[in-house]
Specification:
By secondary structure, the chain is an all-alpha fold. It contains seven helices and no strands.
Length: 159
């Protein structure tokens, strides 16, 4: 019998999701910050990506508690609920202006939320396979970050 190593939602250390929201956002934004903006379309995409990360990590309900929770937030209905509204209701009852931000993430030929779902699923899979990459991303965002909790070993231990 063979085992399938593919995970639809890769598992990452629990401590990642306990980082302060600003640090977590910086870790998640790191690869996008290195994206070369050679056209107005590139600039537009980077701005929308940053806005999406703010909506996901900065939700009034708190940041994601794990990879599956984070990925679930790349859905307009979930985002709307996190911000006190309902995606399909009019008038908007959530935080003022968030409905327009969510709409911007869905607009265009390539909606940003779909691209981000692919990007972060792939990134989380890489981080699960290569924990040193996750550690490097966290240390780049916060050199004083701690990598352990009671339930998680030191990331990269034994590397």
């Amino acid at each position: 019998m063979t085992t399938n190593a593919f995970q639809m939602t890769p598992e990452l250390p629990g401590w990642l999701w306990t980082l302060p929201p600003a640090t977590l956002a910086a870790v998640l934004a790191a690869d996008g910050d290195q994206f070369e903006q050679s056209s107005i379309q590139d600039y537009y995409w980077v701005q929308l990506r940053e806005m999406a990360l703010h909506l996901i990590v900065g939700a009034p309900t708190g940041p994601a508690t794990g990879a599956a929770d984070f990925l679930s937030r790349l859905d307009p209905y979930v985002l709307a609920t996190l911000w006190g509204g309902s995606f399909s209701s009019a008038p908007w009852t959530g935080e003022p202006g968030v409905d327009h931000q969510i709409a911007a993430l869905l607009d265009g030929k390539q909606p940003v939320l779909l691209s981000l779902r692919a990007e972060f699923t792939n990134r989380f899979r890489r981080w699960a396979a290569f924990p040193a990459q996750l550690r490097a991303a966290v240390l780049a965002a916060d050199p004083a970050a701690s990598f352990t909790t009671a339930s998680d070993p030191v990331i990269g231990a034994g590397e």
